[in-house]
Please model this.
Amino acid sequence: MVNIHKKLLEFWTTFNLFPSIPPSTDPHELRTQRISTRLFIILLITCVIILLFYLSLINTTKTVHVDTPTLQQYSQIYSSYSQSLTCPCQKISINYEEFISIHYTLHQICSSVFLTDDWFTYLYSPDYTGRFTDDFRFLGPLAFQGISSFCQLVNNTMLNGLKQFYSTQYVSSVVLPMKLFQLQVESIVEQFRLSTTNNFLLSLTLNRNVTQTNALYSGQGTNYNFVIWNGEIYMLERWYANRSCLQAGGITTAAVIYYSANVSATVIVPGFLQGCFIVEGLLQSDLRCFYNASCINELETYLSPQYAINVTALDDSLSSNYLPNSTIQQLLDHLMIEEWNVTHMYDRYYNACQPTECIYNVEARNAVIYVVTTLIGIIGGLTTVLQFIIPSSVKLVRKKSRAKEETHKGE
Model:
């Protein structure tokens, strides 16, 4: 052991990486070369250790590619790498019908007995229509036919709107995460609701304004009467609530039933109005009486139908967005729709998008092989730099130190 220790010590004291050519015998020069060698070895080892720790401990960003990921794979990746995940869509334009389904339920009046031919016939009393054209038994069937027309019009509007809606394309260049997709679909459906409703109401308002502004004659004679006087035919406006149809076509008054030849002997139909135009009276009417079996029974006492039918009142126990006294106009303001059933299928959207790959970044420590190969590459350049700097620096320092010593001796 003593011999080995002596040999190692002798090797360390005499080891020289920077010998001169030809080899020098000058003790000062030899000492300079050996100091340079020791400093080189110490600095090289120190730098290698520092680099080794640095490369082993730092986190680096790596880009990961996943080819043709399934929805399950995408969900798993998104849960961990949502910030950097990108999955380009192969098909960037997708029809709404591929992943959105909209169903709706109309107000129960649209599927009730009150909009059937049996009810229209049951309500109509020919004995009174020739005598009083404003009797509910004359105007009632027309009003319910109007409600039936509104139900059909709303249904057709929705069917046409949905046909156009389903053919509209959803543009997405990358796969959207589920939550963002749901928010966008909800916004799209809400926009469809508003636009469809607004277009319907705009068309209805336009028709009402044209009819009233031009004072068009009602085919049922509700706004004007024809009178023959001295062989001449005159058209006289009718009055409701002490107002002339010539002044305001939208005026209304309570719908009545004349139960005797005396015009003043009348029964008011709860919630129903009549006016210059059947539509105007209908829009301001409500269905409260037809939610009430007692009210319906009372109406039946004034009817003289040719045959009886089973009349069932509207069910006020059903969950509804409307009240029994909600007007027909209020129903139409929401397209008479009780419920919207919207289904958006994220899996169908994902499959239609057809992402060919998903790309995301992962932060992790360097692998051993990366550390080793990088360290080897750096050591080569580091060795060259140290070999160039250290001998010159040591030689310069020792030269200055020796000059100072000789100066002190001379003094």
Remarks:
- The mean pLDDT is 83.
- The chain has twelve helices and twelve strands.
- The longest helix spans residues 368-410.
